[in-house]
Amino acid sequence: MYLDPLQPKVVEQLDKIRSADIVVGIPSFNNASTIGQVVKAISLGLAKYFGEYKPVIVNSDGGSKDGTSQAFLSVSMYEDMELNFINSPFVPAQRIALTYQGVPGKGSALKAIFSVADYLNAEAVLVVDSDLRSITPEWVERLLSPVLFNDCDYVVPYYVRHKFDATITNAIAYPLTRALYGVDVRQPIGGDFGLSILLARNYLTKDVWNTDIAKYGIDIWMTTVALAEGFEVVEAFLGAKIHDAKDPVIHLGPMFTQVVGTIFSLMKEYQEEWQEIKETLYHPPMYGYQSVVYPEPMNVEASAGWAKFLSEGKKFLNDYAKILSPPNFKAIKELLEAGAKEISFPPSLWVKVVYDYAVYGKNKESKFLNTLIPLYLGYTAAFIDKVKEFSPTQVEEFVQKVAEEFWQAREYLIKRWNE
């Protein structure tokens, strides 16, 4: 059993509980205003769809100063709820609030949750973000049913998101993961997922919990491990994801380098697996009815990202000369030196840039990824400018077209990787 991240008082609580069928984890940091809604939706979903199972809900907190844990423990889970639709008695969920140990970040929070599930010998684990405003009881059913009833190991969310949201997913995480591992998982860093205890225990054996992966890289790491190691994967349709979305230009922060750095480091670890992928893509089963939903509006200006591309990118021309292949360096240099007001960054160039960076990072520390940020902002600005008048269907068609360019350029990557 993996108890190292759990404090003695938490172990005492687990000894009183003794066992559980389902462990639901909610990582948090200063989410007092939203965690109550999340707990209510989870508890109702468990009662409605998994009443005969014994559930435990765990708040794995990073030392919040706003009373998040108190809000988690004090919220009424069942009072004032319409429970008359439940035909048989259900097992009420028990709650545990803990402050996780280790590297600050979601990964350490998840390690504690997985350790609780392991200690209680749970059958399934569900993890949801604490800032969700669109979670419903049906999310619980859709993320857990494939694990409990269909022997699935990993259930990834399929959200409908605003066309300007999730730009790291659309620009890199989705198309690159799809191209590398041959599995079309649309939201590889979604944040909400269900998994089997077998997979949770597999994660606990990995030596990553004191690295940057345990921060923003944890979601893409979990997805990649599941795909590369052959676990059974299913997508679950959850509708719109409404959360604290951020402008990709203003709020980029360390998330970009940690996510991309994790993908690149795993490319080296699993290089034999992804180079053996055949020409046919695998599309995981979709669980849940795909209704028409509309995400919240989001306003983003392409000009800010383009201006940063032009101003910051020029500082790294010497780096680009070392990292990029000569034709790609020439193309980037021309874009930067032209200083064009017209926003344009061809997807075909972006694909090759990402692959050049992956090859360069094969034996490098992740510090060099800071030089990729201006190029990412330039491509994102071009994406936002291009799709600003597109319908949701047209945006998705464009994202799929770019993903296909990543797929078709695999030979370019493999050739450079092995040189």
Question: Which key terms come to mind for this protein?
Answer:
419 residues, alpha/beta, Spore Coat Polysaccharide Biosynthesis Protein SpsA, Chain A, 2 domains, eight-stranded mixed beta sheet, 17 helices, 8 strands, 49% helix
Brief summary of the model shown:
This protein has 419 residues and is an alpha/beta fold. The chain has helices at residues 8-17, 32-49, 68-74, 106-119, 137-150, 167-181, 197-204, 218-228, 255-269, 271-275, 302-313, 317-323, 326-338, 347-360, 372-387, 392-408, 410-418, and strands spanning 22-28, 55-61, 94-99, 124-127, 154-160, 193-196, 233-240, 286-287.
Tell me what you see in this structure.
This protein has 419 residues and is α/β, with parallel strands linked by helices. The protein has two domains: 8-287, Spore Coat Polysaccharide Biosynthesis Protein SpsA, Chain A; 302-418, no CATH class. 49% of the residues lie in helices and 11% in strands. It is built from 17 helices and eight strands. It has helices at residues 8-17, 32-49, 68-74, 106-119, 137-150, 167-181, 197-204, 218-228, 255-269, 271-275, 302-313, 317-323, 326-338, 347-360, 372-387, 392-408, 410-418; strands at 22-28, 55-61, 94-99, 124-127, 154-160, 193-196, 233-240, 286-287. Strands 3-2-1-4-6-5-7-8 form an eight-stranded mixed beta sheet, with helices on both faces. Helix 2 crosses helix 5 and helix 11 runs antiparallel to helix 15 (372-387). It is globular, with a radius of gyration of 22 Å.
